[in-house]
Design a protein that fits this description.
Strand content: 25-35%
Number of domains: 2
CATH class of the largest domain: Mainly Beta
Structural class: alpha+beta
Shape: globular
Largest sheet: 11 strands, mixed
Number of helices: 9
Low-confidence stretches: none
CATH topology of the largest domain: Tumour Suppressor Smad4
Mean pLDDT: 91
């Protein structure tokens, strides 16, 4: 459990979680992440001891736990108590907390895909990874203090619109090259991002492909029109938007980019990344 998840709201669930787990399992442990030990390191160590590792938090906690357990023969689960819970939504485990823990107990599992990123970033991605406007919006969302939930992402996006005007990028998707000035480059394994943006309605965690969402350089007004429309997914009238599927992807940028992975900020100096889809990389509890 990440005590900082959901604007630190996750802490109040610890007693409930202990009571409910006691009803269902003879052997379990609630491990609280600490500053001195990263979530990734803790997940890796526990994966050598337990049959199932559960991320209790949001998309950031999911990302850290998955990066710690890839390669171990364990079942992965989620109890969604974060801010966005986008990955849990794609897994169909975005239920009440009681329903979520019941899903874990029933162990309805399925192999799911992950995206591996190398180059300036070396990590596994569970849900989405984005560069440019997407990454800067994530950065600004972390600075929001007066709001919670999906509003932090909306405010972050609005601030990013005022500060990022696009960058020249060379992209390659499954061997096909694209060269243009882009506002946003996002690869989606899951369907949702930012708590309410239905960025890739056709994406699937089990189809062996990621979905690519590209927005070429547009005016501030156009992006302000696009942004709320993404609650319903990409629209045909968005002339500066392109979508495609792929298994292999490279990005070369003429200038440093901001980036995020599963809602975790990656920094502001990303120029060169390679990503590929790994089918059935982990086994997860799903609500399918």
């Amino acid at each position: 459990m990440n005590p900082a998840a959901g604007k630190k709201e996750s802490v109040r669930h610890i007693d409930w979680l202990n009571k409910e787990a006691t009803k269902r399992w003879n052997s379990f442990e609630i491990a609280i992440t600490r500053d001195a030990e990263s979530t990734r390191e803790m997940a890796s160590r526990k994966a050598a001891e337990f049959d199932m590792i559960v991320a209790c938090g949001g998309d950031g906690t999911v990302n850290q736990v998955i990066n710690g357990i890839v390669g171990y023969r364990v079942i992965f689960g989620v109890i969604p108590i974060g801010t966005g819970n986008d990955f849990a939504r794609s897994l169909k485990v975005d239920k009440s907390l009681t329903e979520a823990i019941d899903l874990l107990y029933r162990e309805h599992t399925q192999p799911i895909d992950l995206i591996h990123c190398s180059g300036d970033v070396d990590q596994w991605c569970a849900n989405t990874i984005g560069f440019g406007f997407d990454g800067l919006a994530n950065y600004y969302s972390k600075t929001v203090r007066l709001f919670s939930g999906s509003m932090v992402y909306v405010i972050g996006a609005l601030k990013a619109l005022l500060n990022f005007k696009g960058a020249g990028m060379q992209l390659t998707v499954d061997g096909k090259d694209y060269h243009d000035d882009y506002m946003m480059v996002t690869l989606c394994n899951g369907k949702w991002e930012g708590g309410q943006f239905h960025l890739a309605p056709e994406a699937s965690l089990t189809d062996g492909k990621f979905n690519v969402v590209l927005i070429r350089k547009v005016s501030l007004l156009t992006m302000l029109i696009y942004l709320p429309a993404f609650r319903r997914g990409p629209q045909k009238w968005m002339k500066k938007l392109d979508t495609m599927e792929g298994e292999h992807f490279t990005l070369l940028s003429e200038r440093p980019l901001n980036g995020h992975i599963d809602g975790e900020y990656l920094g502001n100096d990303i120029r060169n990344v390679k990503l590929h889809l790994v089918k059935g990389a982990i086994t997860a509890v799903t609500g399918y």
